[in-house]
Amino acid sequence: MYGMIATWRMAFEGVTKGRKVLEDGGCAGDAIEIAIREVENFEFYKSVGYGGLPNEEMEVELDAAFMDGSTFDIGAVAAIKDFASPISIARRLSKEKVNNVLVAEGAEKFAHKEGFERKNMLTERAKIHYYNRIKEIKEQEIKPYSGHDTVGMVCLDSNGNITVGTSTSGLFMKKKGRVGDSPICGSGFYVDSKVGGASATGLGEDLMKGCISYEIVRLMKEGHHPQEACEIAVNTLDAELKERRGEAGDLSLIAMNNKGEWGVATNIEGFSFVVATEINEPVVYITKNINGKCIHEKASEEWLDNYMKTRTAPLVRR
Fold first, then answer.
1. Which whole-number Å values give the CA distances from 107 to 60, 99, 116, 227, in the listed order?
2. InterPro entries from the xrefs (predicted)?
3. Strand partners, 286
4. Distance between CA atoms of 34 and 14, rounded to whole angstroms?
5. Residue 310: how many other CB atoms lie within 10 Å
6. For the chain, N or C: smaller number of CB within 10 Å?
């Protein structure tokens, strides 16, 4: 049995390529790296990789992480600039015995030494988004941070190995050097091939407060189905944050266990995700939380068409 699950519709093409790797007998590490690179390299997805939205100084700072559930190898980069495919840099770091998490200039020096591709990750389209947001903030009091969709994936190969990966440009117009949950083990991701893996997307500052990816894997280890584990973890953290702080940020989680069973939970409306298994081709679902239970529905062709039209529509600086 093999399978992949990923956050957001933007992962569909990547999961399609990753599933082909698995179908041909490839390993979970290769499949997830190829899948996430596909998302990172598509400039119209404005929260990941090339074309990702910049920080408040109009710099694109990227975070990414990779974990191997069989060896517990971990690699992560944070606030790295001017390098393509940060997921590949993170995976390379996972092969090191120490220095597995590098940030900013340190991550960039490592990437350069290892021969990774230098690339200006700030696109003209992202600049337009930036200038338009500046104007919106002044005129309409819109919060600057809207827009923070991490691509996170869990991948199981036919040999029982499970990997997890994440990649994001983080909060739109974040403070320089800000790091969210995505490259933080236990919060943005966690995986154990004897159990399963989980990955998060949403407001990193709140996701980190629950070490939520680790919590989901822990619940699966106790015998919970991935769907139960996701719902318990998301609903508990959402309630806890509201009780203690009066509100909870966006929390959306995906998980897959070592049987290829999967689960998804969210506290927002319209969270989309992609699932592919040995039996089923990649499918996009949309989920919503109704009284603590998450209901998944296959995305309609109309929804899918509108998704791409919206993201690729021409932009005009206002």
1. 14, 10, 11, 36
2. Ntn_hydrolases_N, Peptidase_T2
3. 272, 297
4. 7
5. 9
6. C
CATH number of 3-312: 3.60.20.30
pTM of the model: 0.97
* Structure tokens, 197: 């893996």
For the record, the structure tokens of 68 come out as: 């191997």
Asked if 84 contacts 50 with a C-beta cutoff of 8 angstroms, the reply is yes
Q: Please write the tens of the pLDDT for every residue from 77-123.
A: 999 999 999 999 999 999 999 999 999 999 999 999 999 999 999 99
Are residues 144 and 173 in contact, defined by beta-carbon separation less than 8 angstroms?
yes
**Dist. CA 57–CA 59, nearest whole Å:** 6
As a whole number of Å, the CA-based R_g of the chain is: 18
Q: Domain residue spans in the chain?
A: 3-312
Distance CA 100, CA 177 (A): 18
Half-sphere exposure at residue 21, Cβ-oriented, CA atoms within 13 angstroms: 21
The secondary structure of the chain, three-state, reads CCEEEEECHHHHHHHHHHHHHHHCCCCHHHHHHHHHHHHHCCCCCCCCCCCCCCCCCCCCCEEEEEEECCCCCEEEEEEECCECCHHHHHHHHCCCCCCCEEEHHHHHHHHHHCCCCECCCCCHHHHHHHHHHHHHHHHHCCCCCCCCCCEEEEEECCCCCEEEEEEECCCCCCCCCCCCCCCCECCCEEEECCCEEEEEEECHHHHHHHCHHHHHHHHHHCCCCHHHHHHHHHHHHHHHHHHHHCCCCCEEEEEEECCCCEEEEECCCCEEEEEEECCCCCEEEEEEEECCEEEEEECCHHHHHHHHHHHHCCCCCC
Give the sheet arrangement for strand 189-192, strand by strand.
189-192, 196-202, 251-257, 262-266
**pLDDT, tens digit, for every residue of 258-297?**
999 999 999 999 999 999 999 999 999 999 999 999 999 9
Sign of CA dihedral 8, 12, 14, 18: positive
